[in-house]
Structure prediction request, 979 residues.
Amino acid sequence: MVLADYKYKDVIHRCCRCGYCKFPTDWMDVNSCPAYARFRLESYSCGGRLWLIRAWLDGEIDWTEHLAQIVYSCAACKNCAEKCPLSFSDDIVDMIVAAKSEMVERGSIPSVIKEFLENIQRQGNPYGNARTKRGEWTEGTGIKQYEGQEFLYYVGCVGSYDTRAKETAKTLGEVLLKAGVSFGVLGNDENCDGNEVSKLGEESLFQLLAEENIQKFKDLGVKKIVALSPHSYNAIKNDYPKFDGSFEVFHYTQLLRDLIKGGRLDISGGLDAKVTYHDPCFLGRWNKEYDTPRQVLYAIPRIELVEMERNREGALCCGGGGGNFYTDFLGGSENSPARIRIREACATGSTVVATACPNCLTMLEDAVKAESLEERLKVRDISEIVAEACLAKKG
Amino acid sequence: MHTVVAIKQVPDTSEAVDVVEIDTSGKDIKKEALVPKINDWDEYALEEAVQWKQKLGGTVTAVTVGPSEWDDILRRALAMGADMAIRIDEDAAAMDCYTVAKILTALISRLPYNLIMFGAQSEDFGSGQLGCMVAEMLGIPHATLVVSLHVGEGEVRVSRELEGGGLELYTLRLPALLTIQTGINRPRYVSFASIKKAREKELKVTSLSELGLSNEALTPMVRLEKLELTPTGKKAELISGSAEESATKLAMILKDSGVI
Amino acid sequence: MAEILVVAEHRKQSLADVSLEMLTKGRHLADQVSAELLAVVIGKDVNRYGPRLAQWADKVLAVKNDQLEDSQAEPYQKTLAPIIKERKPKLVLIGHSSFGMDLAPALAVDVGAPLATDCTNIAIDNGTITVTRAIYNGKVNALYSFAPSETLIVTGRPGEFLVEEGQKGGSIEEIEYLLDEEFDYKRFEGYIEPEVSEVDITKAEVLIAVGRGIKDKGNIELAEELASALGGVLACSRPVVDYGWLPSGHQVGLSGKTVKPKLYLALGISGAFQHMVGLRGSNMIVAINKDAKAPIFADADYGIVDDILKVIPILTQRINDLKS
Prediction:
């Protein structure tokens, strides 16, 4: 393909590499693009990437695995979109996704991305674990299969298979049971939501997943969906309507807030902890949901809620978006975004860093270990903090 | 140049898939829980054939012996760049290699070919017999376990893998049959869109009778009698705990053993 | 008297280990059913192998062929086929090596004999031969039987049958066998020797071996840091070489090197037999793998079931702590 066929051919050349895409909210440094923070090379920033993409599409440089890795190291965190001063700022992440799409269509993608996508084609999850083990995490809980309950609890791949995230999926399910919410899960019938597939540029596979999921939801009479993962929430809420799939979609923190407000969850047990909240990109920048998770934490008695230097629109990504929680292109260094983020959390003097995303949870928890900060800082999903506040009451 | 690539479908029993069980007959595994895929080795063979077609022109034909569900892997082959696909509609699951080789030979001998490629072995049964047998039945030279090849005028130069990392070099007169080892290339990603697009390409279905073969001619020489799950060894002393704890314990073990 | 025939493979003046393994197995089977064990070796310089083969064989057929330096499939097939057709051995044993894979299927078609390859066991019960094979990525063992036939051909998995030195001292018959055929349709052009890497993994005392579980080339750095903390050398399994993450000189296993370190630390390696066969001589094997059912845990001394990407950095740190 030549540049002329590229969807954003009329705008890509307008990036003048002003460098704003790397900035934090206070414009005091150039450290807020996770890939740039990791590598400190211009080509890993959004602007640098766009220039490389243009050179590749113009035939000035050849495709190499290295070029593909640079393009795929974008965590789709949207920090750049927040900061870009130009008129096409809303499109800059899509400009990178479109380049990934081009690589997907040519079949030339990094081997680990190939594995990720093939695993989803085959087994419906990036790990390549068996489809028939997807619902295993519900064993020994009272969580039921969806059969017309009020809510479909959609768990996502990470919550269904990752050892740590499975605990969170379970904990949230138990909290919902305790609150008397009418809900069910799809278990082994759940399939990948496709959010990462779409951000990795495999648009046709995403469409297939979306259409199959929508059909399944419709057949089961699903009206309301509560998602564990902001990634699933994003895909179902913002992308599924394009395929005629309109559901009432909630991120679980929104449901918890309502349950607490409505007095259906007794969290008066509280928690003695200084807590800082890490904004997941797909809840924050992608869906502008900054307040609800904070409201849930604020409602829990005795929690002292403090903010990290970078928060809300300016929050540093954990580096797990755009499939990077699996491919780990940004890992393996003290400059890995998750480790930078954990040092930032530690600087607040908090004992708990809370988040509301299974991807962030696993990324940050690994970073705490890599930083040897286990004694000082715990990583908790908000559902787990709420569960603890409920338990504390009992005891 | 005309290249024929023989491929097969296998159940995904890779590392991450932990659901292999024997069915009640004791002669097969429970397939319902397993997801089908193209045999790993065959993907390398297809990629190699398509890359040579891009260099030299000609055609690539993908062939298989299997039921209609196996059309999926043929469409995949077409999406990778094969020009035509042919399926011999017969369930090969219970056949031995010799029988499948006979069927494929009957088909391939009716096709134009300069080069034939097979995967060096299959992920499911791993016999590594088929390609070499077909070459013998067709009366053409073969080389197995090929890790690099170069097609020249009327001949193909290959290197084949030996034990210990060395290679053996041969020049084969065309037409020839090669069985392809993994690592020879980097098979391309096959997007879902390209599979859909490949539906426009020709996928022929033929039968044993059309190939002039009768069922009687296909009596097996080797028969599977019984399956058993491999007993899982329990030798390793497992170090438990979080990543932190287990790493710390392991470091101590290494220290005590004098490695550190 | 019934015969069992073992095809002896040799390259660069030495017999293949797998041929000795087949001779040992062949000897046991021959003793069990009172058959004679016949070893066939073909090549320019065959008399050098005769006495060694006669340790197991009742009779060695040393076929002298001046055109053939080392074992190659076509000359072997053309020589063996008439011998098999004439002598009708009950069983022909060949190693499932690169040579065996190139030879056995064509030979089986040539002589019309049933063939089972890559067998992990061969048994004779009441005159009936059955074989066992490991299938579905080693997760299942399969038992096979054969249609009635004068001769069966079986290839045995390397490393599966242990070599016991034989005491037979059989006879050696040297025969001149001039092939009338020139193998101009498949010309041997020489060897490419294994890549020499800066570090020789066969001599290293500590090997840090990475497998597919390392996921990406970039993560090799993590393993390198661990290797330098342990004063060890990086090794790997086949997929890592296939993906181009490490040069082939680092590969352990059937198509790589055979190693015998004091410590073999396997990171994200499942433990397929093709890999394990290369590290049998290790003093201590430690495996870290996410999959609790990975076959490597059956061979390892210590195991951690966890994600290597999580464990490696911590382990590196702890080791550095212990050293300081």
